[in-house]
Design a protein that fits this description.
DUF397, four-stranded antiparallel beta sheet, 2 helices, globular, alpha+beta, single chain
């Protein structure tokens, strides 16, 4: 899939472009959870309830820092 630089990525985009992970707590119908998609240079985070909304995109190092903080606290 070719990305359109003028259109923000959505959860629908990232699930069709790359492998994604979803919480095992989300249930059969998707539930309330975050979906994570990773690339070499980016980590994309989307809301499973809003697949057509833009995702949050951060660098892998920013994502690692976030996880370290969440796990530590």
């Amino acid at each position: 899939m070719e990305m359109n630089q003028n259109k923000p990525l959505t959860l629908n985009d990232i699930t069709s472009m790359m492998h994604t992970w979803k919480s095992s707590y989300s249930g059969q119908d998707g539930g309330n959870c975050l979906v994570i998609g990773t690339e070499t240079t980016a980590v994309h985070v989307g809301d499973s309830k809003k697949p057509d909304h833009p995702v949050l995109t951060v660098t892998p190092s920013a994502w690692d820092g976030f996880l370290e903080t969440v796990i530590r606290d």
